[in-house]
Design brief:
With 120 residues, the protein is of the alpha+beta class. The longest helix has 15 residues. It has a 4-stranded antiparallel β-sheet with strand order 1-2-3-4, with helices on one face. The protein has one domain: 6-pyruvoyl tetrahydropterin synthase/QueD (Tetrahydropterin Synthase, Chain A). The chain is built from 2 helices and 4 strands, in the order E-E-H-H-E-E. A hairpin with a 2-residue loop joins strand 3 and strand 4.
């Protein structure tokens, strides 16, 4: 079973490692959409994999930390690509929900990436 919970936040960033003429080198913002996916077996008694509220409890503080911030100023996100944001969120969630399967980050409605953890 795979369960997904979606979150949204707005933040500014710039990509310091792209060429100077690249548009993403300049400060700009996005409304990011994040999907956290967990997978495992359904608990027969409960009838669910995990309570959506538990996923929200773990992920919401991370989203609050990112919302309306300059992502480059957050330790670990000095180069805040969608890929690095997905890994950043995954690594924090993994500390509390060890059966997290993936984190998907939409930088725009049509551009996203998925991080599934090391070796997946």
């Amino acid at each position: 079973m795979i369960l997904e919970k979606e979150f949204v936040f707005d933040s500014a960033h710039f990509l310091p490692n792209v060429p100077p003429e690249h548009k993403c080198r300049r400060l700009h913002g996005h409304t990011y959409r994040v999907i956290v996916g967990v997978s495992g077996e359904i608990n027969e008694k409960m009838g669910w994999l995990v309570d959506f509220g538990e996923v929200k409890r773990v992920v919401s503080p991370i989203i609050e930390r990112l919302d309306h911030q300059l992502l480059n100023s957050i330790p670990g996100l000095e180069n805040p690509t969608a890929e690095n944001i997905a890994k950043f969120i995954f690594d924090i969630v993994k500390k509390d929900i060890d059966f997290v399967d993936f984190v998907k980050v939409y930088e725009t409605p049509t551009s996203s990436c998925v991080y599934k953890g090391e070796g997946k």
